[in-house]
Design brief:
alpha/beta
């Protein structure tokens, strides 16, 4: 069975991973077949709401070192930029600021450039045409080798219309017509957090866009006020291997916990590799054992329902029992669980509105 290009799109809200944590994730997932890492955390303001500001020298040093680490494992590295407000006034000043930002990315030597228009109002006249013009400008300015675009309406989910305004008619069709075919278009599926990806849906979207999409899979991400109450550890389901021929890539938006994220990430690679022989429960145990060792893997399996289904806000007295249990384990994954139990990964509505 063919496996699409697998990748990480670090596109979550809340506290971000450290650079050593990112390097550890790359070291774990690259041998399993992950081919790219897209850096685009929501709370990096200089890539989003304050995108016109210059990047700090210490950040530049860290990101170059991380890029080199990705390359040492055969992975591409990309940066995601959300040019807030550019589609409202794409005049000379905005173009100059955008060119300056992309020139910085060129100096870093990024492989992939990702232009993001999610998380902003979309009920704007000629939205697709304006965003296509910005994407074309970025293509001209960038020396990257691969290009990605995230629409304002990146799913058929009506929640996007409720939050960001009613989507323009023929929005996807106009994007597909105006954006260069070399650009990969990110898509989260029938919902923002899709339970499954069906061939029928993917082919329908491909027909509207005039190209296959690159999946932005919002699992195991857990960054909303509700989702941050859960640890998404279960093996991937609802992504059958036969969709490989109908996507240009499959990127996962990881959980806030970097070590624990590697467990479901490894099961996604297994689901493509094993095709009809894939068993998500067995894949979980194999992945968990590879990441945290057999003893901790058994503990995670035994507590999977509490972490994944029950959630932090409904654990009650079990929270204290679990904390004592994992405090006795000396492993970074156990520390992530304790931090989560203590509310260290909680996401507020304010974060969603300001990051």
């Amino acid at each position: 069975m063919t496996q699409p290009e697998l990748g990480i799109i670090e596109g979550y809200f809340g506290r971000t991973w450290t650079w050593p944590e990112r390097k550890a994730v790359v070291s774990c997932l690259a041998p399993a077949g992950y081919k790219f890492f897209h850096y685009a955390p929501k709370n990096d303001r200089k890539l989003r709401r304050d995108w016109k500001e210059l990047l700090a020298p210490e950040f530049m040093n860290e990101i170059v070192a991380f890029k080199d680490h990705c390359h040492s494992f055969g992975m591409r590295f990309g940066i995601g930029l959300t040019p807030y407000g550019a589609h409202l006034d794409f005049g000379t000043e905005t173009k100059q600021m955008l060119a300056r930002k992309i020139d910085i990315f060129n100096s870093i030597g990024i492989d992939d450039l990702i232009i993001l228009f999610d998380d902003m109002r979309g009920d704007v006249a000629n939205l697709a045409e304006k965003q296509s013009e910005i994407m074309a400008f970025c293509l001209d300015q960038s020396r990257a080798h691969h290009f990605y675009f995230c629409p304002s309406y990146y799913s058929d989910d009506p929640v996007l219309d409720r939050v960001f305004g009613k989507r323009p008619l023929q929005y996807l069709e106009m994007l597909g017509k105006n954006i260069d075919p070399v650009v990969h278009i990110y898509w989260t599926g029938e919902e923002v957090c899709s339970a499954a990806f069906s061939l029928g849906h993917l082919r329908n979207v491909a027909e509207r866009l005039g190209r296959n999409v690159c999946l932005w899979d919002n699992y195991p991400v857990n960054d909303g006020p509700r989702m941050s109450q859960h640890l998404h550890l279960r093996g991937f389901t609802g992504r059958t291997a036969d969709i490989a021929y109908d996507v240009t890539g499959h990127a996962i938006n990881p959980a806030s916990q970097p070590v624990l994220s590697c467990i479901p990430a490894l099961t996604l690679a297994a689901s493509y590799r094993q095709a009809e022989n894939y068993q998500y429960g067995k894949a979980f145990m194999e992945a968990a054992t590879a990441v945290v060792g057999i003893d901790l893997a058994v503990m995670l399996r035994d507590d999977l329902l509490s972490f994944q289904n029950t959630g932090l806000d409904r654990l009650g007295e079990s929270k204290h029992i679990l904390r004592k249990k994992y405090a006795a384990v000396h492993h970074p994954a156990a520390l992530e669980i304790i931090d989560w139990l203590d509310g260290g990964y909680a996401i507020t509505g304010e974060m969603l509105e300001t990051q």
